[in-house]
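REQUEST FORM: STRUCTURE PREDICTION
Request ID: SP-0412
Submitted by: Lab K.M.
Chain count: 1
Length (residues): 456
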Amino acid sequence: MDSFLSRYRNLTVLLIVIVAQLILLGYQVKTNQDMRLIRVWSVSAITPLARALEFTRFHTFGVFQDYFVLLGIRENNRRLKEEVGRLKMQNQFLQTQLSDADRGRALVAFQSRTPSKTLAARVVSNGTGSNSATVFIDRGSDSGVESGMAVVTPEGIVGKVIAAYPSASLVLLVTDPTFAAGVVSQKNHVGGTLKGQGHGNCIVDYIQNEQKVDVGEWFYTSGYDRIFPRGFPVGQVSVSRSGRDGREVYLNPAGLQGGVSEVLVVLRGAHQIIPENAPVATAIHMLPPPPETPAEAVSTGPELSTQADEIKDAYKKIGQLENHDYGISSSIPNYNVKPRPVAPPAPKPAPSTPGGVTTPGVSIAADGAAARPQTPAAQRPAVSPPQTPRETAATPRRDLSPAPPSQKPVVEAPHRARVPLLVTDPADVDPSELEAVRSGARPKPAAPKPSETKPQ
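STATUS: Completed
RESULT:
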């Protein structure tokens, strides 16, 4: 055997390698892997060694490398911040130039539309006074600007020139306390004098309380001050109320809304007609109002009752019992009385005739004439019996019918006494009774004396 293996050693090794290759190929096909097994084994064997080497390198040489890299990042960060700041300033400058261009186009459009001759100017600085509202513009006497000229914008008046220098001019704003200009309202044509107050609002003076000025109404220059041409917008009324010396009218100056940067100096003014409609405001998107909540859906909460409410109700009951009207009657009710339920009075017996004879079913009137026959008590309605003249004149008539359970008995005052009136119908007179009275079988009742009818 040994001689066979030694003799065919190379062939044996080749056969073993081929068989092993076939086995590994079958395993690879069975596991459905495209990766060669030799590569998988080699990578799996080398990976732990590479991981150990990388760990050692990171914790030794990597620390120094990161330090030098951070130094470069810090410098790069500083450079990026400077560039971002420069770009922000450039963006702000471009936005300012764009807004200036928009205002410049508005000024050019306003110059072409207004009949007055104007000169465009730019505000370069503010005044030095602590309480004054003044600005300097970059146009002076070399450009034709003179002291007393009006300064306006397309939105409204700004002020007037108080000093003209060769290359600049000093402008007094409408909010200065020493500023004054003649104005007139658009709707009611009420004239007044515009005065500054040192802050954002202005007041319109010399308006009587009887003159009507509505909140939201616009004021325009009247032209009577010989500085501002007639027809320039001034502002919108924010407050209008009656005062001690006259109507107090405050308005917001329209020319100073949003700041002042470019203005127009009126070199030669031309009066204009005050427009009938207010200036068109910028459109603002507004949502519709919310729907109104129905009354039954609103919760009013429980009714509050305090000790004061109970005392008030007790006083009302005492006033009703004593027939006292609060705020009208001069008498004072007795508040110590406790309200008690009033029992209905007992019914009175049926009265007899003057002769002392009571005829069932027939009632005799006071003048001797027979009244209509009476029906039984079970068939006639419940009414109060008639009273004699003496009883009627002495005491007031009272309703003897019982009051309903849900209503309180009404007590009438003595000065409201009324006398009952009995009206008989001749068609209801019984002929037999009338004949008996005429023949003398039954005495005629005597008429009451005047003294008996006089109240006691």
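NOTES: The chain has a mean pLDDT of 74.
Reviewed by: T.R.
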